[in-house]
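Checklist before submission:
- one chain only
- standard amino acids only
- sequence pasted in full

Submission:
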Amino acid sequence: MYQSNCSLKASLTTRCGGNFASDSIKQDSITYNTKITIDAKWDARKIRLARTNREKFNASGKNPNSDLFKPRNELVSNTALLVDSVYVKAFRLAAYKKALAYKKGSVAHCFLIGGLTIVGVYATIGLILMIGSVKLY
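Returned file contents:
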C-alpha cells in the first residue's frame, strides 16, 4: 500500500496534535522570551529617576510610554539587547512599575523612626545597667 507524503503528514499532524518542528520552535521562543524578560527586569532595577524627571513623570499623568523609561547603555548588562523589542518592552514596563512604587518618606517620618530607635537603645542600655547593679544573694 502506497501512501502519499501529504496524507502521511496529515495523519501525523492530526494524531500527534501538531507539527513537531513548529511546537519546538514555539517552546524555544517562549524560553527565549522568558529569559529576556527576566534580564530586563533585573536591569530595570538599576534605573533611578532624578528629581526633575520624577516631577515630569508625575506632571505627565504617569505616562508608561514616556522616554524616561527607555533602556540606556549604562543600565543594560548586554547592549546587544537594546534592539530586541521583547527586551525593550519588558524593561520599560519594569522601570515604570518601579517608578510607581517609589515613595519618599517625609522628614517628620524619618525623625520619628530615628527618635524611637535612639530611645529604644538608651532604654535597653539602662535596663542592662540596672539589672547589673542589683545584687542577688
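Reviewer check: The two ends are 107 Å apart (CA to CA).
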